[in-house]
């Protein structure tokens, strides 16, 4: 199956997670609920929203004026397009404040479409696909925060992520979004977080990885699954396609009440996975992309012809010599190549971080955190980091090796997730694929055919040409 290499990485990660030391992961949001909806006039709300987004984008050199953001969100062909405002989505005032404090101005297409479905009464199930970096996480986080009853001190929403790092990242989004809703508390169900036997959780939202969530619902009984109202599967296709995760997710699902709302999200759903999802989710609403919509126009895709890994490395150096790259993620097929490449890049004077499957999850989370803080500019990794990781400043993704499954066939889903680490929420991004043999050229051609999207050739000996594509 297309996700096997990812599955392997995930399994390694789950195993490694066992050895992480304890950490109190309970989040107690501090601030009191500020103003009610009545107190915030639409004009003031709009100004605050516009200003906060503008500040965020100017800080990250994305735009110079609010107009450019507005242009992006008013283009009906953009996945960021929306006709509605967050106010019109009838969010609780304290969530509206959280959204604005995060610098969000308008909802994206997936947020605008999915939120009314997720907030409808009676609750409706949803299987939703939307391009990478278009705000799926924010969408289901808002749904969970909207559904909890803070007066009830027990878990009501359960969110399962395929990896420790993603669970942490999504938890951070819940914390930020719920900053003005301090009555709602969050607990991380990840393997290092050891609780005393017999404890009954009081936190209303639990985010975690499937094995730990399952233990907490069954063996350890920290969570009463019968009281769960919302169940979210993030990166749902990999949860379904990976045997271990599938078993665990289905065992969790079976313990939930019949009327529990099920929400499945991903940027990719292979056909067989999609069909399976429809079988396990009763009467779902469905948001599905057409194949040609799956790739983002804001991410420009190129390939470079080489003969060996040394030539690929030289091409990489030429690219770095020609353009300024804020941050880059470089994907390799094996840990060995990743280690070699990271060492070569360091020798060239780059600030490089290396992240691969054999590292302890704690170490991995720390590497991502440093990269997110800009302490390293280049992250060399394997498929372990292909999904979900959201680092705004990544302007270039390099496939040093093209993604293939265990039979050597193109792994289209992983390709999409990898290149989606750049071009987050309307930002422009470059994806450069290194081809080093007839076989890899064949893989590239099949990826082009699959997405029906041309991947242009790039001559890395021609510095002017590289500069041109960067502009
Ligand atoms: N409405 C919004 N306005 C501005 N920024 C937003 C909005 N929604 C989300 N974002 C930002 O866009 C980035 C991408 O969002 P998010 O991580 O939710 O995407 P995703 O669809 O889950 O991506 P992936 O498929 O890679 O998991 C994040 O940095 C998030 O803070």
TrEMBL record:
Domain Helicase ATP-binding: 117-287
Residue interval(s) of motif Q motif: 84-112
Superkingdom: Eukaryota
UniProt keyword terms in alphabetical order: ATP-binding, Cytoplasm, Helicase, Hydrolase, Nucleotide-binding, Nucleus, RNA-binding
Catalytic reaction(s) noted: ATP + H2O = ADP + phosphate + H(+)
Keyword set includes ATP-binding: yes
Chain ranges of the Helicase C-terminal domain: 298-466
Protein name (record): RNA helicase
Taxonomic source organism: Denticeps clupeoides (denticle herring)
